[in-house]
Amino acid sequence: MKTYDAFPEPIGGYTVGRTQMDFEYTASDHSKRELTAFVYYPSDSSEGKTTSTYMFPEVYEMFNEQPLITAYLKGKDVFSIDIKTQCYDDLALSGKEKRYPVLFYVCGGGGSPEWGTVICTDLASMGYVVVSIGHQNSTMYKRKDGRLFNVSKDFSDVIMAFSEDPEMLALAGKMEMRPDDETAIEMCHNVLTLPILAKLTEYSELQAEDVRYVADYLYKLDSGELNSIFKGRLLLDIGMGIVGHSYGGPTTAIVCRDDDRFACGIGLDSGAFGLLDSDLKKPFLLLFCEPNYNMNAIIGANNSMETYYFSVDRVAHLDYCDIVFTSVNEELRGERDAMEMRNLVTDYTKNFFDHYLLQKAASVESLAYDGVDLIKKTSNK
């Protein structure tokens, strides 16, 4: 298995800056939420700095303490953090454009906000400001104030209960590869009505609340109410975009559904928890490995705007994040070359946001990757 000592050079022309911010607020369930976020953004020079640290060693150690890891991957190395990034801490914001459009990235459950470093760096190098949040209870992170937050036992228990639920396992055993729409929608409906999903959905909704809170904060940065390099520099009036991997995908869709400031979204090998009767009212793209269409067919069935379903062959679930470059365990990887997989995910993401946010002629349907098929495009206008 090929190993990497550095992430690939960013695709775009900008040098990429990265800064970290901490947040606290009280959520609608009255819980106190203490978050962090990494913000990736376009810059003109590395200012002679060394590249940003990929992941704090303390966070990596927490990963090995998670119940999910000890249950399923005990004693196995999963990924390495000894890899060079292609971004730099606390650079000046580029002066090439007056304002820059904004995207959010949501990592998978049990992951870390750094797990999207490659895609966030790529998008920032092409002129986007990209925010990746550490969500309390469902992800692991180190805040700027030094405090460590690991995945909670309750969240781990919920994920394990879902993965081991007899009804879910029975449905998973019946999932067909490339089912017809009616079959896939019925299967998705059956999954989403399982009682085990209620608690999972609560966590998705809390993550969506985190995103909305941080979006509020960005508006304050742009207005100058809070001082930062982003004062008067964020292109917010066109709307924001959001992309989520795995468990972050439902969060992405919930944000699109509930917040009109978000113009479009992308789910990377994700599901539809909490979206049973939801019209997202926003363009949405799903990039996934089969038989995942069974897990999210209902999104396009209900969405009044365009929904794209792209099936990708020869990939594993974690290939959609940095694991393609950091994995030290062959079992976690699909068959596609890491660079090809990175280019694929970045291309579909960039083309989608360029079209629906920036109104460029870019089209996801014009992309041609071997083994990537548009299985459905719906619009229920």
TrEMBL record:
Record-linked InterPro entries: AB_hydrolase_fold
Pfam families hit by this protein: PAF-AH_p_II
BP-aspect Gene Ontology terms: lipid catabolic process
Domain of life: Bacteria
GO molecular function: 1-alkyl-2-acetylglycerophosphocholine esterase activity
Swiss-Prot/TrEMBL keywords: Hydrolase, Lipid degradation, Lipid metabolism
Signal sequence region: none
Protein name: Choline esterase
Organism in which the protein naturally occurs: Paenibacillus donghaensis
